[in-house]
Amino acid sequence: MYIAGFIDDKNDSFSDYTYALSEYGIELICTDKKMSKLDIYEWILENKIEFLFIDHKLIPKYDFVGTELLAYLNQSLPDMHFAILTSYKTDSLEDKLVPEAFTIDRKIFNEIDLSDFAKKIIYYIEIFRNRLKLLVNRYEELFDKRKSDFLTFDEEEELKHDFKILKSYGEVDEIPIEFLDQNVNAKLDKILMNLDKVLKDD
Fold first, then answer.
1. Contact 4, 51 (CB under 8 A)
2. pTM given for the model
3. Which of 57, 118, 134, 140 qualifies as a cystine partner to 24, CB 3.0-4.6 A?
4. 2-127 adopts what CATH topology?
5. CB-neighbour burial class of residue 99 (10 A; exposed 0-12, middle 13-18, buried 19+)
6. DSSP state letter for 40
């Protein structure tokens, strides 16, 4: 099963789109709940979404249009593919924030045969899954380095960011994110050393 998401300011098309994509093994998770950009990022991770459709005209329900949201999410989830779904492609293209290839006319869902469209979505999801595997390699590198040496501030932030994503998609074991913080671990090591000393003295 492949998991795609859809953000829209209204839900009148959700059932049609959900049914159309389910025929090709794609589960579509939809929401019209008003959220901040950060809330939407968290929603994506919570639902293990692997590809996201975003309606262009989110205003006035949201405080931003779809192309702005896509640009924001692309920074937090650069390995995932996003697409603007719109009835007015020219409006989306005028923002110059999303390539035309990722601006999709809603009319595509009126077609009887969606097999080519579904294949593209599945292809992008498989790219995302493969990129997650590469992200695991980088995460393990940083985690191993952290055990034997101190990371730079940027490396530590990258480690925590990658851990959150990989944990959400079940790619790494769950551990409290605090244990990725070098300062916390240094304090824990000191406490354990002191405890060991006390036990030996007794």
1. yes
2. 0.81
3. 118
4. Rossmann fold (3.40.50)
5. exposed
6. H
